[in-house]
Write a sequence for this structure.
C-alpha cells in the first residue's frame, strides 16, 4: 500500500479489509453516526499505514539473507530451509529467509537446526545448545567435537573444512546422539569412524569446547561462562573470555617451511605482562608487554654453548595499550622500547656481562650466529608508576628493572644485579630472571621466577626483592617453595608469574609449571611479607640459604618466609594454555589474566625414525648438521606453528564471588 492514501473509499474496500464489512454494518445498526465515522477512520488509517503490503495489497516476499556458521568458519556443511538449500562456503556462508528454520547436515547426520537472527550463527544456537546458566551444553560440545574431528587439515584454528569425500562416507550412517556425556560421545564417534574407515582422531572434548569459546569471543567480542561453588576452589562466579586481535611480526628471511607456517609473520605475543589503568564510559584500558620476541630452544654449539633461535632478530620488545569495550579488545597503540635514542632488541647480552644468559643467538637454519645486544632485554612484567606517565618493567636476563615513558617507550633508567638490585640474584637460572613486578607506596617488588641456580632443585624458596628507586636501597624476602610439590621433587621446576600488590605487604602471584602429578597447573596464591624476615644479609655459615634443605634449619637460621594462601587453579576453569603470565586487579572482585602465546611457534626436532626429541640435547656444527651425544646423525630441526589452543593471545576477566582482602 502506498504511503499516502487519498481515496478513503478505496482503503475501506481493499481486499485486506473485506472481512470488515459486517463490522461496518454493525456500526450502522447499533452505533450512532459519530461512532461509525470513528470506526471507519480507524480502518482507513490502518490500511493507509500498512507499509508491509505491496501496492496490490499482497504481503511482500521475504528477501534472501546471508549468515555465517561459526565454530571458526565451517565450510562444506549441507543446509536446507523451506526456501533455500546448499553447502556452506569457505567462510561458513549460507542463505536463508527471515523466520525460516535452517537444518544443517553432514552426510545423513543431522547436526542440528536453528532460526538465524543475525549474520553470525554460533554452533551453540543449534537446538538451543546451552544450559540454564547459559553455558555450553553437552550437545554443543559434542557437535563441536564432530566438526573439529572431521576438519580436513586437523587444525580448526584456521577454519573447519569438511572434505566432500568424508561427507560422502557419512551417507546412510544413521544418527549420532549429541545429548550424551562427552566421554560417551567420543566412544560413539570413534566407533563410527572405525566402521567407515575414516582416518581421524576424535578431538578431546576440552579442546573442542575451548575452540568453541575462542570462536565465540572472536565473533562477538567476548564469551562468558558461569560457575557454581562446586567447581574448583569455589571462588569463581564467572569468566569473561576475550581474544586479542592478531598483528604480526614480519618474517623477512627465506626459509620456505617458516613461510608456509607463518605466511603473515608471527602473531604478536602481548601477554607477558599486564597492568590495569582505568575503566571509563564502558571502556577498560590496560598496558601489556611482549617478551624478547619470536625465539625457540635449539641445539648446543660444538663447544657446549647453549643457543636460542631468533627467526626475527630485528624485533624490539614492545609496549602495548589495550582497550576493551562491548565489541571486544583493540590494540590502541604499540611502542618499541628504546634506550638513548636507539631501539633495543631481545637478543642475548654479551657473554660475561651482568645478566648474560651465556647463550648464542642463531638463525632458524642454525647456521648464522646473530650476535648479541648489550642493551637486550627479555621483558616480562609491567606495572604503573605513581605518576601514571611512566611504567616499570622487569626482564628475565638480568634480572633488570627499568622505568619506561609510557608515551614513547623510552627507557629512562635501568637497575640490575649490583647496580641497585642485590648482586646475588644474578645467579638466577638462565632465562629465569623476573616475571613478576609490582609497585606499591613508592617501592618496587620484583620476584625471581624460580629458585636461584644454587642447589636449585632442593632450595626451599625463591627471592622477592623490595627496591626503593629513590634511595637505591633494597630488602629481600623468601617466598616458600616446597620441592615435593613439583615434578620429580625438583623445586627448580617451579615458575612464578606476574605479581599484584594488594597493599599492606600482601601480594598475589601465579605458581605454574609441571607439578608432582606430571601435569601443568597455573595456581594463584595470595602471600604476605609483613612478618617475613629480610634475608639480604643472612647466610648459613659460609653458604647461601638456598643450600638448606630442611625447613627447620631454615627457621633456625633466622628465616621466616612469607605466608601464602591458595586461591584457585586456572586449569579447573578451562585454561589450556601453558603460560599464564599477565595478572592484574580490576577491582576487589575481578582479576584480569593474559597468556604468552610464544608468538605462535614451537620447535619440531626429530630423529631419523621420525620420533620427537629434545632439541637442547643435540649439538649443531657450523654447517647446521645435527648429532646427539653419542655421535649419531640423521636428526631434523624446524620451527612450526604451536598448538591451536596456545596460538591466540587471550585476556580473561575472572569474577570472584568474594572480594580479595
Amino acid at each position: 500500500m502506498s504511503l499516502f492514501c487519498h481515496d478513503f473509499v478505496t482503503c475501506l474496500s481493499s481486499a485486506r479489509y473485506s472481512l470488515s464489512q459486517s463490522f461496518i454494518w454493525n456500526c450502522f445498526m447499533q452505533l450512532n453516526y459519530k461512532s461509525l465515522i470513528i470506526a471507519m477512520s480507524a480502518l482507513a488509517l490502518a490500511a493507509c499505514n500498512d507499509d508491509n503490503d505491496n501496492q496490490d495489497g499482497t504481503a511482500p516476499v521475504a528477501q534472501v539473507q546471508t549468515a555465517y556458521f561459526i565454530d571458526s568458519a565451517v565450510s562444506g556443511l549441507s543446509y536446507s530451509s523451506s526456501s533455500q538449500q546448499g553447502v556452506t562456503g569457505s567462510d561458513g556462508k549460507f542463505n536463508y529467509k527471515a523466520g525460516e528454520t535452517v537444518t544443517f547436515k553432514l552426510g545423513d547426520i543431522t547436526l542440528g537446526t536453528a532460526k538465524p537472527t543475525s549474520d553470525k550463527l554460533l554452533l551453540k544456537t543449534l537446538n538451543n545448545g546451552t544450559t540454564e546458566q547459559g553455558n555450553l551444553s553437552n550437545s554443543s560440545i559434542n557437535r563441536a567435537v564432530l566438526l573439529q574431528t572431521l576438519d580436513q587439515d586437523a587444525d580448526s584454528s584456521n577454519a573447519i573444512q569438511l572434505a566432500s569425500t568424508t561427507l560422502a562416507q557419512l551417507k546412510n550412517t544413521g544418527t549420532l546422539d549429541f545429548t550424551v556425556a562427552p566421554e560417551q560421545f567420543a566412544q560413539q564417534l570413534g566407533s563410527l569412524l572405525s566402521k567407515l574407515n575414516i582416518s581421524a582422531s576424535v578431538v578431546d572434548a576440552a579442546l573442542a569446547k575451548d575452540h568453541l569459546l575462542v570462536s565465540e569471543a572472536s565473533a562477538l567480542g567476548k564469551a562468558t561462562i558461569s560457575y557454581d561453588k562446586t567447581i574448583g576452589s569455589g571462588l569463581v562466579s564467572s569468566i569473561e573470555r576475550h581474544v586479542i586481535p592478531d598483528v604480526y611480526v614480519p618474517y623477512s628471511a627465506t626459509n620456505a617451511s617458516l613461510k608456509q607456517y607463518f605466511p603473515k609473520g608471527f602473531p604478536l605475543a602481548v601477554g607477558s605482562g599486564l597492568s590495569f589503568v582505568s575503566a571509563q564510559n564502558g571502556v577498560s584500558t590496560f598496558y601489556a608487554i611482549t617478551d624478547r620476541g619470536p625465539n625457540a630452544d635449539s641445539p648446543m654449539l660444538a663447544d657446549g654453548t647453549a643457543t636460542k633461535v631468533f627467526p626475527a632478530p630485528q624485533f624490539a620488545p614492545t609496549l602495548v595499550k589495550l582497550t576493551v569495550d562491548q565489541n571486544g579488545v583493540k590494540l590502541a597503540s604499540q611502542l618499541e622500547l628504546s634506550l638513548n635514542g636507539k631501539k633495543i632488541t631481545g637478543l642475548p647480552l654479551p657473554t660475561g656481562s651482568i645478566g648474560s644468559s651465556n647463550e648464542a643467538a642463531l638463525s632458524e637454519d642454525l647456521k648464522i650466529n646473530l650476535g648479541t645486544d648489550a642493551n637486550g632485554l627479555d621483558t616480562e612484567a609491567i606495572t604503573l608508576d605513581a605518576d601514571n606517565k611512566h611504567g616499570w618493567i622487569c626482564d628475565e636476563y638480568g634480572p633488570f628493572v627499568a622505568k619506561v615513558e609510557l608515551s614513547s617507550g623510552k627507557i629512562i633508567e635501568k637497575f640490575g644485579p649490583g647496580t641497585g638490585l642485590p648482586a646475588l640474584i644474578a645467579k638466577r637460572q638462565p632465562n629465569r630472571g623476573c616475571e613478576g613486578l609490582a609497585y606499591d607506596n613508592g617501592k618496587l617488588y620484583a620476584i625471581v621466577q624460580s629458585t636461584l641456580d644454587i642447589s636449585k632443585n632442593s632450595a626451599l624458596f625463591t627471592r622477592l626483592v623490595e627496591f626503593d628507586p629513590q634511595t637505591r636501597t633494597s630488602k629481600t624476602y623468601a617466598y616458600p617453595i616446597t620441592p615435593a610439590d613439583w615434578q620429580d621433587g625438583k623445586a627448580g621446576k617451579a615458575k612464578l608469574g606476574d605479581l599484584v600488590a594488594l597493599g599492606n605487604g600482601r601480594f598475589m602471584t601465579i605458581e605454574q609449571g609441571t607439578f608432582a602429578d606430571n601435569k601443568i597447573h597455573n595456581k594463584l596464591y595470595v602471600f604476605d611479607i609483613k612478618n617475613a624476615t629480610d634475608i639480604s644479609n643472612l647466610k648459613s655459615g659460609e653458604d647461601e640459604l638456598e643450600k638448606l634443605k630442611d625447613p627447620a634449619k631454615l627457621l633456625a637460621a633466622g628465616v621466616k618466609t612469607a605466608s601464602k594462601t591458595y586461591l584457585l587453579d586456572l586449569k579447573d576453569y578451562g585454561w589450556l594454555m601453558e603460560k599464564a603470565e599477565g595478572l592484574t586487579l580490576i577491582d576487589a572482585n575481578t582479576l584480569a589474566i593474559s597468556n604468552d602465546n610464544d608468538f605462535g611457534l614451537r620447535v619440531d626436532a626429530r630423529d631419523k625414525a621420525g620420533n620427537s626429541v629434545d632439541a637442547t640435547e643435540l649439538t649443531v656444527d657450523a654447517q647446521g648438521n645435527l648429532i646427539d651425544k653419542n655421535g649419531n646423525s640423521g636428526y631434523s630441526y624446524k620451527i612450526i606453528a604451536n598448538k591451536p589452543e596456545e596460538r591466540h593471545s587471550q585476556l580473561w576477566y575472572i569474577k570472584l564471588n568474594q572480594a580479595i582482602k
Summary: Confidence is low (pLDDT under 50) at residues 1-52.
